[in-house]
Amino acid sequence: MSTYRTAALLAAALLALGACGKGKDQAKAAYDVCLEAAKKDARIGKASFVPFEEAKVAGSTGEEEVRVNIPYEFEGKKALYQCIAQKQSDGTFKVVF
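RE: above sequence
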């Protein structure tokens, strides 16, 4: 998939998330659950992760899944923690990837 097409799809997903009234709240909830998983990772748990406002949160493989990309710095190197959070029936999110 081309870079432009990927960017367009991500932009559309962000607009869709923003359009629904609770989009930002749901994006923050997905970010929080992914950040928690990242901090539990034995390899990078002590890294310095960016706050929600600097992370990339977008719709993913389905209506109930959100892709979260959290940049971080660890031991002088910058990298990206990627996660997919799935919305549960009670409204919370669970990391599925």
